Each structure stands twice: as structure tokens, then as C-alpha cells.
Amino acid sequence: MAELVQRSLEDRLPELEQLERVGLFSRREIKAVIKKVSALEYKIHRRALSKEDFIRYIQYEINLLELIKKRRLRIGYSFKKEEIEFSIVPRIHSIFKRATAKWKSDLQLWLSHVAFCKKWNCKTQLSKVFSAMLAIHPDKPALWIMAAKWEMEDRLSSESARHLFLRALRFHPESPKVYQEFFRMELMHAEKQRKEKQELEHAKIDVVELEYSEEILNGQLARIIYKDAVLKIKGAEFHLSLLSIVKLFDFAQDLQKEILEDLKILHADEPLTWDYMARRELEVESLPCAEYSSKLTKASDLARKEDCCCAVYEKAVSAVPTGAMWKCYVTFCLERFKRKTNSKELREKRQEKLLAAFLRAHESTLLEEALYKQWVEVLLELNKLETAAEISTVATERFSHSVEVWQMRLQVLMKLKSDDVPQRFEEAFCQVKTKDTLPLWILWVEWSEGVNGVTVTEELFQRSILSTNRAVSVTMKEKYLDWAYRTGGYKKAKRVFASLHENRPFSLEFFKMMIQIEKEQEASKMLNLREFYERAVREFGSTDPDLWLAYIKEELSHQQGKPENCGQIHWRALKMLQGEQVEEFVSKYALLQTRES
Q1: Which of 392, 345, 354 minimizes the C-alpha distance to 373?
Q2: How many CB atoms sit inside 10 A of residue 243's CB?
Q3: What is the 3-state secondary structure (H, E, C) of 215-246?
Q4: Angle of helix 271-279 relative to helix 253-266, nearest 10 degrees?
Q5: Where do the U3 small nucleolar RNA-associated protein 6 N-terminal domain residues begin and end (predicted)?
Q6: Structure confidence by residue, pLDDT tens digits, 135-191
Q7: Residue 275 and residue 217 in contact, taking contact as beta carbons nearer than 8 Å
Q8: What's the rounded mean pLDDT across residues 464-480?
Q9: Residues 472 and 464 sit within 8 Å (Cβ to Cβ)
Q10: What distance in Å separates the CA atoms of residue 265 and residue 271, rounded to the nearest whole number?
């Protein structure tokens, strides 16, 4: 091992001598580099190899390169790069190669090598890295795409990129992303060749000898990829993704039309197809700007386009009467309704269409739960409280087990200041599963606090903490204690705590809240704090090291505290905590002792 390290150091001597000779490094710095490199070399040549040692060595060499770069800029010296940098870079490649050969499955290591190659423009080496990486990780489509993009964009080799995509499809014959990027690459290549040909023709250079393929120029290769892709991967979403790509290329109008026609035929019963066809009406060319006599003309043109969109949606909901199709229709109307406009007529028309779409979807019993909530929000925004109450009532009948729908209905009733709120809460608790009732309890007590007296609200809190669901009981105890302190002060909070401290389940936050309340008092008593901490560690002392540390700090910092108790608390903490928590507690306790001393 020593011979290998010595040989490696000897190989470095020419570059180190150059660094000193040209004034980039001092003799003292060269000695420090040799010492550091010697230690790193020993670590990567021992029997028990560690990945972290290789990463540290690579990072050190990269930092050295960056330092040399900064020193060159500072003194304005740009010579001898072959003897200095170009001897360090191959060594970094060698270390990367050893590391990736040892830890083949570490993808981050491979990607770090790729990033290094790109930064230092090592094209030949990067090509080898990609080949080795893809041989080990052929199951990751993103790597194939990365390699192909590099071949296309950096090496300007469309043949190599095409070859990589074809290989990727052998491993991932049903990968949408591979097909999308392959399709995009062929269109980009065709566009690039078309521009080259036009420039040459403009310069009056004979292009016959260059043999530009008409098939490539017209996007025929992209068409072949598209045809193969839609045979392998079904669904309108993928089809639309290819359409969105081809729309970026003006020369591929024929291919765009073909994809669009195929979409209509192959996916005529899919909501996404109809949604796309409807929204296309907004892209229809408007009148020239000069023909707009006023803002009113522009608004009427936009209204005409939206009418065309809605006409397509009307056909869609007749042809494909599903919840998903109605969702597309309503979502479109909602988007248009939320768009700002100065035209009162257009705004009213959008409102009318939206409310009509909501109503028809509801009457067809195909309106989804989330859309009912949006419907009610729109009605509230329009100040139609009575209608909102009716719709929320219907929603709770249709989705009787949904806590979100019940919340919505109850909030509408609260806005109306209805007398039925308590009865509706009772009804909601009968319908919603116990494990989902926490939002209802919180809403009820918050409403009661603002409307009812203290007695009624406290009765609600006492009901809620009796819930059989742990999450409900725990959370409502915290809120009960907080409410008691806000409304009745310290005495009431302490009385509530006393009534609950034996009533499990608890949360740590419940005890922390009571401790904080005690500490906020002018005459804070350590006797009370000690009781609260003792109850907290009894429940959570086996899992929370920070609780024990807070207890110790309290004994040390409080005027009535007893520092002599800290040793006993420390011993008890070590007995109760387990595993890594013991180590965490010991290290934090040692840090606390250091600060105190």
C-alpha cells in the first residue's frame, strides 16, 4: 500500500513544482497539499474501503482546482494549464472510476461524475461514463434521456442520440417520458436541418451534395415514433402530451392535424379529449386589433369564443355523461368566471353560465363532492346565502359521511345566524365517522365561544374530551385548557388541568401548555412546576429527551429550584430513555453543563 501511495505522490511532483514555480502556491502550501493528499491516498488504498473517503478525496481535488482558478484570476496568469489542471482532472476521473466500480448502485456518485465531466468539458470521458452508467442502471428512463439529450445538444450527434433512445425503448417499451423526449428530439433535429438548408440556399451554396433527407426534413421520423408510441401507450393524456410537443414546431402542421384527428377517433369517449377540443376554441384567431372599435367589441369577441367552448362542452356532456366530463365543464366555467374583465355584460354572462353548469351537473347527479364546495363558495361570493344553504343541505344528503361537506353546510348556517346550528351539529356527528369528527368539534366550540355563554361552551368541551377517538380527545383537551386560561385566567386553567390530569389519553403539548401558564404568573411556584413536570415525564419520559432537559433547566434557573435534584433527574432519565435517545440526552446534558459552568 505504501508503494502505491508513494508512486501517486511522485506522479504529482511535476504539477506541484509548476504551481510553486509560477507563483500560484507557496512552498508551505505545497507541503500542506502533499500532507493532505498522502493521508487521503492511504485511506483509499486500505483493505476496508469507505465511500466517504473517496468522496472526500474527490471533493478535495475539485476544491484544489477551484483554488487554482481563483489564484490565476488574481495574478492574471493563464499559462501552463496542460501541466497543472489537465493533470489533476484525469486523476479525479480515475478516483471516480474506482468509486463507481466499487459502489455501482450509488446513482448519486455516477451523477456527480457526470456533472464534473460537463463542467470540465470532458466529452470523451463523459461518453464513457454514460455507457458504463447505463450498463449498470438500464432500468432508469431518466438516465437514458439525459444521455441522449447530451449527445444531441452538446455533441451535436443526432445519430448517437437516436441510437440511445432506441436502446432505451428496448428496456422501457411503455415509458411515456422516453417516447415524448424521442419525439421532441426528432422534431428538433428536423427543424435544425431545415434551418441549415435555408441558410445554405440563402448563401447560394449547392445543397444537393449535402444530401438532406426529405423524410427527416418533413418530420417523417417523428411521425413513425408517434405511430409506434400510441400503439404501445393508450390514453388521451399521453396523446395530448405529444400534441402539445408538435405544436411547438411550425413546419409540422400536417403531423399536428394527423395527431388531432387520431385523438378524436381513438379517444372520443374520454373527457380529456373533449376538454381539449373545447378549449381550442379560445385559440381561434380573433379579429385584427385595428378592427376593435372599442373594448366592448373585444369583450364581445371573447364572449363569442367562450360560447363556442360551451357549445363543445354541451356536446361533450351529452356524448360522455360522466362525473369527470362535468368536472371539466364546470372547471372551465369557473376559470372563466374568476378572470377579471371590465365588461359588466361579459362578467354577468360568465356568472350565468357557471351557475347553470353547476345546476345541470347537480341535477344529473354527477357533480363531485369538491365541486359542491366550490359552488357554495361562488354563491357566498355573490351574496346568495339562502341558495348556498339549500345547496349545502343537498350536498350533505348526497355525501352524508363527508366531514368537509358538513363543515361547509354548518359554516353557511353560521353566516345566516340560523337557530338550527346546534341541531345540525348533532346530525353531523350521527353521520360522520368518529375518527373524522375533530374538525366538527373545533368548529362547534369556536362558534359557541362567540355566540353562547361560558357554561354552554364548557359543556361542549367536556363532551368532546369523552370522544372514543384518541386524536379528538387529545386535541380537545389542549383547546379546553387554552380556552379556560383565556376566559377564566390562571385559577380556572389550573382547575381544568386538575380535572383532566388523570384522564388519558394526553399529549405532551397539554403538559407544556400548563407549564407555560404557570411560568407566566408573577409568583410562579416551583412546587407546581415540579408537579407538572413529574406528570409529563410519567407519560412521555421514555420517549422525549428534551422534556428531561427542560425539567433540569427549570430546577437550575427557577428562584425556588433545587439544583441538587438535577443528579436524581439525570439518573431517572437514563433509566427511562432507550437507544439513541439516551445518547441524545447525554450529549445535550453535557452541552448544558458546559454552558452552566
Answers
A1: 392
A2: 18
A3: HHHCCHHHHHHHHHHHHHCCCHHHHHHHHHHH
A4: 140
A5: 9-89
A6: 999 999 999 999 999 999 999 899 999 999 999 999 999 999 999 999 999 999 999
A7: no
A8: 94
A9: yes
A10: 13
All three cell numbers of 597, joined, read: 459552568
Query: What is the rounded distance in angstroms from the CA atom of residue 226 to the CA atom of residue 243?
Result: 10
Residue 209 identity (one-letter amino acid): E
pTM: predicted TM-score of the whole model, two decimal places: 0.81
Residue ranges of alpha helices (H) inside 501-525 are 508-519
Residue range 196-217, pLDDT digits in tens: 888 877 776 665 555 667 777 8
Check residue 293 and report its DSSP letter: -
Distance separating alpha carbons of residues 481 and 498, to the nearest angstrom: 10
> Do 245 and 183 contact (CB within 8 A), yes or no?
yes
Rounded to whole angstroms, the Cα distance separating 99 from 51 reads 7
| C-alpha–C-alpha distance, residues 370 and 358, integer Å | 12
The angle at the Cα of 487, spanning 483 to 489, to the nearest 5 degrees, equals: 100
Q: Using the structure block, give the residue that is written with the C-alpha cell 360522455.
A: 320
CA–CA distance, 73 with 258 (Å, rounded to integer): 57
Beta carbons within 8 Å of 478's beta carbon, 6+ residues apart: 507, 509, 510, 513
274-285: string of b/e by CB count within 10 Å (b at 16+)?
Answer: bbbbbeebeeee
> Grid coordinates standing for 504?
388519558
Burial degree of 365 (CB within 10 A; 0-12, 13-18, 19+): exposed
Quote the CA–CA distance of 553 and 41 in Å, as a whole number: 47
Cell numbers describing residue 49: 474501503
**Amino acid code (one letter) for 374:** Q
Q: Are residues 430 and 443 in contact, defined by beta-carbon separation less than 8 angstroms?
A: no
Residue 143: DSSP 8-state? H
The H or E element containing residue 130 is helix 123-136
Going by C-alpha positions, the residue among 504, 465, 506 that lies closest to residue 484 is 465
Question: What is the amino acid identity at position 568?
Answer: Q
